[in-house]
Amino acid sequence: MDDDTATGRLLWQVTLRWRAAVDRAVAPLGLTHAQYSLIGSLYGLTRQGRTPSQRELADFAGLEQIYVSKLIRGLADAGLVTRSEHPTDSRARQLSLTAKGVEVTEAAVGIVHALQHDLTAPIGGPSGPRNRALISTLRTLLGGTPGASEGSTAMTATPTLTGQDIGEAQGALSALLTNVLAASDVSANEYVTFRVITVRGPWESLDDLAAYLATQPQLNLDTAGAGKLCAGLVQKGLVTAGGPVALTPAGSQLFESLNATVRETTQRIYAGLDANDLATAHRVLATLTDRAHRAVSG
């Protein structure tokens, strides 16, 4: 088939591949691609403060109302969606997500967002100019299809970042660090202390070092606990006792070995993440940290 007549065939093949990928990805959540498309649209409308009727949701998602009715019944039976009386139309029902529905949808949106990164990786990723051009072309081909552009954006938007998200990420990474360090009989707090001594040292005394460590919320130590941590490292022969406080040769060797292992693990964890996304995440987390510190200090 000539390339200039292959548009429909290629669009169909991409669509089938995408639907199959989404079906596989969201199946553990009890969803199909079609259900995800609908519940994702409802999630998008809910975030806008709207409680749509079934017809409004169908229009927004660009789906036939009879098909939407069938999907809604399945989602309601699964406890993800509720239907209530419409305040102005006795024939209509308003739709909203249950708490379980919000949780499942946000998990699904995150999964599908990652899939989009994989799908568009060959053309530079979701934020690349080639993907933006493709989106523009597809919107042109869709013409005035109801909900085509708006619904797509709502379904694929990344869920709002919450404190729980940050806490879960911090917990998972802390557990990973603990696991990496376990073979060397070094705790996460001891490893952080190595870094503080190396990057911010040398320190005039162990008391100065302990006082600084006690100000670091991620360590969860008071001054006494930080002093005990430093004394333990001195006892192990990894940190010098007198000023300036620094790593001993054995401490330096251990720290270099641990750094190599942590660096390798970090590279695997960060593999495939867009540099712009990482820069944005860094700015957001830095701002949140600063605001939290300000709030605590009054």
UniProtKB/TrEMBL annotation:
Domain HTH marR-type: 4-143
Transmembrane helix found in the keyword field: no
PROSITE patterns for the chain: HTH_MARR_2 (PS50995)
Coiled coil (UniProt feature): none
Entry-linked SMART domains: HTH_MARR
GO molecular function annotations of the record: DNA binding; DNA-binding transcription factor activity
GO process annotations (BP): response to stress
Keywords: DNA-binding, Transcription, Transcription regulation
Pfam family, one: MarR_2
InterPro entries named in the record: HTH_MarR-typ, MarR/SlyA-like, WH-like_DNA-bd_sf, WH_DNA-bd_sf
Protein name as it appears in the record: DNA-binding MarR family transcriptional regulator
Lineage summary: Bacteria, Bacillati, Actinomycetota, Actinomycetes, Micromonosporales
